[in-house]
Amino acid sequence: MTALIHLAARSLWNRRFTAGLALLSITISVALLIGVEKVRTEARSSFTQTVAGTDLIVGARSGSVQLLLYSVFRIGDATSNVSWESYQRISSHPMVAWAIPLSLGDSHRGYRVVGTTDSYFERLRYGGDRSLELAEGAWFDDLFEATLGAEVARSLGYRIGDEITLAHGTGSQSFLDHDNMPFTISGILAPTGTPVDQSIHVSLEAIEAIHLGWQSGVPIPGQEVSPEDARAQDLQPRAITAFLLGLQSRAAVFQVQRAINAYPDEALSAILPGVALQQLWSLVGIAENALLVVAAFVVLAGLAGMVTMLLASLSERRREMAILRSVGARPVHVFGLLTAESTLLGITGAIAGFALVYIAMALGAPLAQASFGIHLAPSAPSPRELTLLGMVIAGSAFAGAIPAWRAYRLSLADGLSIRT
Amino acid sequence: MSSGSTQSIIALTGIRYRWRPNAPIVLDIEQLHIAPGERLFIRGPSGSGKTTLLGLMGGVLTPGSGHVHLAGSDLAKLSAAARDRLRADEIGFVFQMFNLIPYLSVLDNVLLPCRFSRKRSERAATDHGPADEARRLLDRLGLSEETLLARDVAELSVGQQQRVAVARALIGRPGIVIADEPTSALDADSRDEFLSLLQEECSASGAALLFVSHDVSLAHHFDRTLDMKTLNRALDGEAIKP
């Protein structure tokens, strides 16, 4: 057995150029397969970590996935708002421990602006039970102060004391600016690996203030309000986009959810983030599975390339087989030699592909963090990934049986006669 | 017949072989005995059933009728695996050319039979250890340590390659060395040198030598000469299909 593996390794090394190409195709296909799986699980755990500390999300009545996406992940927009009165009534419910109001709809250079209160900084939990921390500066205190997420500050190069103006709407190119009321950066949050890193936080009152003199989403001509005027006005918010609730006891979650869904004065939805995430996964699961199937087919193509390489080598190796037969190799050994070669390629390709994924993850982590807020941490291979690798290796051994069978037949037919 | 088979390293009796059940007989040998340590020359041009004969002796082919005894064992009574094992134990082959596995070092090529035959591995080990024995054989065959260091066996000359093949055939002292046209790729000078080396080393290890060639001028080096034409009765009359 060891003799065969030794032979197989030397034989592959002898044909290292063609074997290398076959190996490359297996490596890339394995990297794709494991990469798809890794991104899938990492994205899921990243999403789950983001909502881990919240018991209920409340917004205007809509689908739970939509509410989850716009409130927590800042993807898409709300269709309508929640009145300030409803927010106050619900957040004073005896079972409610804390509430974080969110007022969305403005942006700065593509990054979402979140109007909220101090409870956001004090109460928001992510990744189990971790609370937000400031990397430098302080949480906004003044009306025209803003606290940046880590990624916003990093990619736009902002520092404490810099001034920014907000834009109306959430596109990166907005035509309507709130440039009459600039904000001063008061603090920058430490990285969290959640959408918080991509957010600019201001007070609810600030959101009110910058929309003074606006109607139906456009400024009324000739009614520009100066920051000084704004400070003098009543900035009590009339509506917010959504809010997050933490309860006194998790056991009360369904009771509170039912009460909110049946709220008489306004059509509201309260959702459990975990349940909404499950719905989201079942939705994107189809696409994920499609990707996995594509990756699996790429692996098949890689194995087919290897089989082609081994089959093509057989005609020139008939002499080698005859020599091996003459020194006592049985046809089974010839079969084993070819299978060992394909399995060695499979194992090497699987390990190299896995390594490639880790390298790509290490290199791509900042990009994934910046573009999608997905925190890619190199983690130990999961049982599922190991199963996939095992399947690739088993597949390569099986694929090797095709050239091995042919070599077996040839060596039975040729015996000791050396043919060219 | 059993008495003859115990005395012979190889004994063929009443052999008839055809490629397919209804194909013509290509090999028909009444008797062929090779005594231990004997040096036998068989003259056989191509198409004389030579390849078939070697396949039968090696247990790679099985005759339709008759018996092949190798080192006292009736091959017909052995499984295919046992025949392969016995071949590895008792026969060293040297072919016409390209005897070596291109991706193995010279040393690994010589050691190949030891990887498939425990008996030859043990016999090679009794002296010094298989690798030392391989070096000793290569040294006796005039292949220096420097040649051994050649990474690629394709860098060796044809003559050197054939001598490596002899070392491989002899390692672990098999009962017989079967050489199939081993000199046809060599020029006249190296042919004589090779032939005497082959004979010397076979005598030294006590192996019988079966030398098959179309070149009858080499026959005088041997104890006994046979001609496929007289040995193979299937050659009389009808044309032989290869």
Polypeptide structure, described:
The complex is a heterodimer of chains A (420) and B (242). Chain A is an alpha+beta fold and 420 residues long. Chain A has 2 domains: 2-47 and 285-414, no CATH class; 56-271, no CATH class. Helix content of chain A is 54%, strand content 17%. In chain A, strands 1, 3, 4, 7, 8, 9, 10, 11, 12, 16 and 17 form an 11-stranded mixed β-sheet that branches. Chain A has a two-stranded antiparallel ribbon with strand order 2-15. Chain A has a two-stranded antiparallel ribbon with strand order 5-6. In chain A, a hairpin with a 2-residue loop joins strand 3 (96-108) and strand 4 (111-116). In chain A, helix 10 (273-314) runs antiparallel to helix 12 (331-372) and helix 10 (273-314) packs parallel to helix 13. The two termini of chain A are 28 Å apart. The mean pLDDT of chain A is 87. Chain B is an alpha/beta fold and 242 residues long. Chain B has one domain: P-loop containing nucleotide triphosphate hydrolases (Rossmann fold), CATH 3.40.50. Chain B contains 10 helices and 9 strands. Chain B has helices spanning 2-7, 50-57, 80-90, 106-116, 118-127, 130-140, 145-149, 158-170, 188-205, 228-231, and strands at residues 10-17, 27-34, 39-43, 65-70, 73-74, 91-94, 176-180, 208-213, 224-227. Chain B has a 5-stranded parallel β-sheet with strand order 6-7-8-3-9. A 4-stranded antiparallel β-sheet of chain B has the order 2-1-4-5. In chain B, strand 4 and strand 5 (73-74) form a beta hairpin. The relative contact order of chain B is 0.20.
